[in-house]
Amino acid sequence: MTNQQPVNIVMVEDDEGHARLIEKNIRRAGISNTIRHFTDGTTALDYLFHAPEGPAINGPALVLLDLNLPDMSGIDILGRIKGHERLKRTPVVVLTTTDDKVEIQRCYDLGCNVYITKPVNYESFADAIRQLGLFLSVMQVPEAGDGD
Amino acid sequence: MTSEPTDTARPATGLRMHILVGLLALGLLALASAVGVAIWAQQRAAQNGARVEHTLAVQELIQRVATYSERVETARRGYLLSAEPRFLAVFDRSATVLPAALARLETLTRDNPAQRRRVAALRQLDDVRTADLVRTVALVRSGQRAVAMTGFASDPATDATFRTRAIAAEMLAEERRLLAARNAEQQRSLWVLNAVFALVAVLLLAVVAGVAMILLRYTRALSATGRQLARLNSDLEGVVSERTAELQRANAEIQRFAYIVSHDLRSPLVNVMGFTAELDAARKTIADHLAKEFERDPDSRSPEVMLAVEEDLPEAIGFIRTSTQKMDRLINAILRLSREGRRRLTPEPLAMRALVGDIAATLHQRAADAGATIEVGDMPDIVSDRVAIEQILSNLVENAIKYGKPGRPTIVRVEGRRIGTRIAYDVIDNGRGIEPRDHERIFELFRRSGAQDRPGEGIGLAHVRALAYRLGGLIEVTSTLDEGSTFRLSLPHTLTQTE
């Protein structure tokens, strides 16, 4: 654990309720990292690629991505991240209601690291997010620009 | 539309049949009368022939009488002149021939009084002459030839010969007249015969022409009906395939729609359930806090607050939970349906008897529990998607087992038959049946018919119909309440991929 810079969690989720529930459960899992929340694809992409404190320019990050966004599909965002020279190593967790096999395959093909289906049952939902939190707490996230 | 041509064709055909039968009867009658007339004419001709022969015989006899009369006269003269005994032989001969001829004439002319009188006269004349002849011969023999000679000119024999000649001529004339009359009559009956034959021939010709015309028209109408039927048939197939193609399109659209809607409905549901749980957690925190607070200061204890926290809030949260859970189940059902609609179909030749046998084996325990038996009839094979067909038929058989009529052992029969280019599979039961107003409704999602006393979500038949449409097929029900139902699945013989 040589890396001292805190990992920012970038959450792209158009549903405010889902975002709040995800955040609550991540906090309950003991993860205290900053969570930046975006409700549409355009501003999220702008932050990821152009913000001075964003992961493309500065600092490690982890992306929580919903696929059903109002202005674009989450798959487009995934493709852009995995196609970018500096962002491609950024872990992306797709967290969405879609459980279609074809969609899941496409996400993994594009380089998605984890794919989680949001269960409607809240106990399962909270459980899934808490486990994700535990996973995040032990996960190594590369620095932006590492290895360049 | 299909029943119209047969409705108008039937009475016309009936009328035509009546006419045909009438004509045939007429023809038969004409033939019979022709045969009758021919027989009658034949008899007539034979009769006539006999009568002509009779006349000819009479004529010959008259001739013979006349000839012998002349010969006897000639011989008498000769005998008187020469007294030669050889003339006596002529006398002897005529003495036997003439009476015989006269006797025969008498019998032959029994039917003609005038001729009979004449024959009697002839006989008398013969007797007179014979007596005279005997006297003459006696005179000549006794050598009184001169006496005999002198009496010659005035003797009765000569007179008798003259008169015989005259009567014979009369008789011959009479017979000739009769012959002519009989000939004329024969001619007339021949003419009548010919006329009758001509009439019959014309009649027969008319009958044959009529029958031929009717048959021709009938055959033409028949082949026209056949062509129409064939056209209707091919139209019907076109209509069916057009309709199933339409249904397939509509089905695919609904399934896409269902998929999107069910996904979008899930999102808010996650929130409702999530925040209800959060609410419950918060309530617990408040309840714990209040409990501690009231313990510390029992005076501040308020029954309303306790009621709200311990009963009203949990009740409200409980209702929200069960409702959202139910909604989740329904959405999952729609999702399952739409996902089934997106599955790729793989047509393959299916041995249907074996397939239905497997279904029956799988459902054997449930059928035994419900006291039901499953029969498998004739099952034509098909080229289609195995999973879809299995799901449809097992769903239908399962329903039949599930909705039996209490107090009557359920018998489920599965059978199929080819209808044109399609195959119809029937699942027939003697169960509780479905009310007519529900016949369409049961195929709708979440709709169920009759007493709601069996578990189920109302998805099975909606699923069955969606699958049938995808296979280019149709599903229909005919049912009588309390008597049973028949579900008919009709499918194209060979499934062709359209997606």
TrEMBL record, chain A:
<feature type="domain" description="Response regulatory">
    <location>
        <begin position="8"/>
        <end position="133"/>
    </location>
</feature>
<dbReference type="Pfam" id="PF00072">
    <property type="entry name" value="Response_reg"/>
</dbReference>
<dbReference type="GO" id="GO:0000160">
    <property type="term" value="P:phosphorelay signal transduction system"/>
</dbReference>
<protein>
    <submittedName>
        <fullName>Response regulator</fullName>
    </submittedName>
</protein>
<feature type="modified residue" description="4-aspartylphosphate">
    <location>
        <position position="66"/>
    </location>
</feature>
<keyword id="KW-0597">Phosphoprotein</keyword>
<dbReference type="InterPro" id="IPR001789">
    <property type="entry name" value="Sig_transdc_resp-reg_receiver"/>
</dbReference>
<dbReference type="InterPro" id="IPR011006">
    <property type="entry name" value="CheY-like_superfamily"/>
</dbReference>
<dbReference type="InterPro" id="IPR052893">
    <property type="entry name" value="TCS_response_regulator"/>
</dbReference>
Automatic annotation (TrEMBL), chain B:
<protein>
    <recommendedName>
        <fullName>histidine kinase</fullName>
        <ecNumber>2.7.13.3</ecNumber>
    </recommendedName>
</protein>
<feature type="transmembrane region" description="Helical">
    <location>
        <begin position="20"/>
        <end position="41"/>
    </location>
</feature>
<feature type="transmembrane region" description="Helical">
    <location>
        <begin position="191"/>
        <end position="216"/>
    </location>
</feature>
<dbReference type="GO" id="GO:0000156">
    <property type="term" value="F:phosphorelay response regulator activity"/>
</dbReference>
<dbReference type="Pfam" id="PF05227">
    <property type="entry name" value="CHASE3"/>
</dbReference>
<dbReference type="GO" id="GO:0007234">
    <property type="term" value="P:osmosensory signaling via phosphorelay pathway"/>
</dbReference>
<dbReference type="InterPro" id="IPR003661">
    <property type="entry name" value="HisK_dim/P_dom"/>
</dbReference>
<dbReference type="InterPro" id="IPR050351">
    <property type="entry name" value="BphY/WalK/GraS-like"/>
</dbReference>
<dbReference type="InterPro" id="IPR036890">
    <property type="entry name" value="HATPase_C_sf"/>
</dbReference>
<keyword id="KW-0597">Phosphoprotein</keyword>
<dbReference type="Pfam" id="PF02518">
    <property type="entry name" value="HATPase_c"/>
</dbReference>
<dbReference type="InterPro" id="IPR004358">
    <property type="entry name" value="Sig_transdc_His_kin-like_C"/>
</dbReference>
<dbReference type="InterPro" id="IPR005467">
    <property type="entry name" value="His_kinase_dom"/>
</dbReference>
<keyword id="KW-1133">Transmembrane helix</keyword>
<dbReference type="InterPro" id="IPR003594">
    <property type="entry name" value="HATPase_dom"/>
</dbReference>
<keyword id="KW-0808">Transferase</keyword>
<keyword id="KW-0812">Transmembrane</keyword>
<dbReference type="InterPro" id="IPR007891">
    <property type="entry name" value="CHASE3"/>
</dbReference>
<keyword id="KW-0472">Membrane</keyword>
<feature type="domain" description="Histidine kinase">
    <location>
        <begin position="260"/>
        <end position="495"/>
    </location>
</feature>
<dbReference type="GO" id="GO:0000155">
    <property type="term" value="F:phosphorelay sensor kinase activity"/>
</dbReference>
<dbReference type="Pfam" id="PF00512">
    <property type="entry name" value="HisKA"/>
</dbReference>
